[in-house]
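To whoever is on call:

I kicked off a structure prediction for a single chain this morning and the downstream step that reads the tokens threw a length-mismatch warning. I double-checked the sequence; it's 817 residues and nothing unusual in it as far as I can see. Pasting both halves so you can look.
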Amino acid sequence: MRASESNQDYPFVVTNTAAALLDDAGTVLAWTPAAEALLARRSADVCGRPVRDLLADADTGGWEAVLAQGGRSGCAGRDGWAGRATVRHGSGGELEIGFRVVPLNDGAPGKAARCLVIGAPVEVVARWRQDQAFTRELFLQGRVGLAVFDGDLRLLRTNTHLLPYTGVPVDLYGRRLADFLWAEDARAVEDRLREVLDSGTPLIGFNTTVRTLDDPRGGRIVTIQAFRLQEPDDRPMGVAAVFTDVTEHERSRGRLDLLYRATGALGGSLSVLRTVEDLVKVLAPTFGDCAAVDLAETVLTGGEPTADGHLPLPLIRMAVAGAEPDVLRTGTTTRFAGPPSASAERACRGELVTGLGDRPAQSGDDAVPEWAGAVPGAHSAMTAPLCARGIRFGRLTLWRTGESAPLEDDDLALLEEIAARAAVAVDNARRYTKERRTAVGLQRSLLPPATSEKPAVEAAGLYLPADADSGVGGDWFDVIPLSSARVALVVGDVAGHGLHATAMMGRLRSAVRAMADLDLEPEELLAHVDDMVVQVASEAESEDPDDGDAGIALPGGPAGATCLYAVYDPVARTCVMASAGHPPPAVVGTDGTVEYVELSPGPPLGVGGWPFEPVEFDLPPGSVLALYTDGLIERGEGDVDEGMRDLAERLQRSDVLGRPLRQARHDIVEGLPPGRLRDDVTLLLARTRVVDTGSLATWLLDADPAVVADARHLVLAQLTAWDLDELAFSTELIVSELVTNAIRHAGGPVRLRLIRADALTCEVSDSSNTQPRMRRARNSEEGGRGLYIVAQLSHRWGSRYTMGGKTVWSEQNLPLA
């Protein structure tokens, strides 16, 4: 045996092996130093003695028994044999060894028969045999490929399953990988093996694709494990590598990953268009080189095809990925043939076509289907219908071209699974599209006309709904004509999206309009609307959840809406406004500068119990007031300050001072594509106008019944000056009744004012806070008919409180020119 313990795995290395030379009688003729070390017996003590003296069972015929293991006696015979024996150790103990007897001659006449006995501890021999068996069986098994490379990475030894597919030579001895693999594939493997050879660090789990020169299409995916082989003196000998074909495993994992990613893409949007666009981006080029989705036109508008199992025609190509623009174009019309049977089972099957380059394009049983031949150069294609609830409404199609592996039945099964999930997603998006169209239609029906011309302002509004993922919101704007040629400008935003937000918007707009008719101050109006919202939220919380007629609750709790209410007076040229949590409006001055009104906004509507602070400022004629919702300044980024600066720049670039507002409004929102907004965008532009002094007439009257006649004369003279004699009779009666009531019930000085704008307004102001009301006078009563007469002669009439009392007003339409 070797003197060094580190070399015990090499029991039969000649220079360090325990060996004894025996003659035919079994006498020890020579004894190696390794034998001295193994048995702790010197050569001088052993040589010349029978070998049986070394056997622990010598008294029972041990040597003869040992020789009998070889089937012969003595050292005669050509073949050696191996066995086991127990020998006496020099320390007095016993040692079990494995040995091998090697005859040194064939016992020819005149020659003494001799043999060489080589021995080692039995556990060392057993381990050596195990190593031999392991190596032999490792190269014989066929589940993985095993290869041994020399220092130049040439193959020394392989098993038959190194790379079990077309193009690998039978005899690989002395070859390099580049002799039968693609150069880049061989280089990728050799680079990693070279790292193992140089560093000694094992390579674990390196996945790569290998393609042979004879069969380059597709290739195989292998996992490589490698470790360095070393000489006894630790010099690198080469590299051993294990190649495991994991193609099917990787394909299965790739299919699961593709299915997972496709499912994730399908759940990312409630828009039909974005759903199919996201899907084809996942499929191409990962699953195929080209992918396309064709949908029935009715699906795009939320409609549902007939449930007859047939594919509705025509189809519109809605999404394409991986193809050149001139090959597959979105928006084109296709006419796929329907299935032969109306059954849902057959209607929802896919179709796989391979060998497209070898099949005729003309008509015939073996002709290429029209859909499959849509991509030039494709060698295989497959299609799967989009079918949900037994209703077909489109198709998902995939092509492979060039050197991609041909599509297989497993690929079709995966496409059908993806198509089934896509069909559910598209169907949900279709239903949501239908609801959204209803909500958008309701939203737009609740908004005022986009443009309006008032004596006080030229107004133009614009509403952009949020994208399908966010849903229609509750934004609104309004332009409300008030008495005395004034106008109210309103913009609001209900929290949340969907029909509930739209319905709540309608309730708020109606409430604001009703309260605006009372001529309330902005802060008072918002306080009343706030109380209404609190009451609605309270009613919604108290509703029985099982009651199908439950009311509409504001989403997000009581703070469910913001609102800005502004009143512009073209006579005084002032604007007063108040805000309930709404961003401040922008004012474009006549010099082109843009400033934001310094507001002190109160809480959003629905909080309750908090006052709203008004702010009043002058507005020169020709100024433009821009009211908006937060969707215009946030747009999803959340930086409101930056959004307000951007809005100011947009207002300046759009030239709102020199252009009609109906044109400028579109330039302001340019770059905000419809259908891609995270929140609704509402914009209301108002260019201020004034009522010139020539259209005003004001008189201060004493509280004396005798002045009523004077008032009539003054009004008739002014109407003549304005060329409004057609209104003389009715105006005279209205003025007489209003002035008489003011003197009789209020006392103090009375102010009479006529305003000629789009209507003739007659105002009578007094110091009383008592609201006048119209009543039905009895036949026996002499009075009580004044307000009834005013109401009959007026287009509309009313009263409003002022700082010094109240004002009763009446409006009459101007005669046609």
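Update from on-call: the warning came from a stale cache, not from the record. Cleared it. Sanity check on the structure: Residues 1-9, 337-347, 548-559, 779-783 have pLDDT under 50 and may be disordered.
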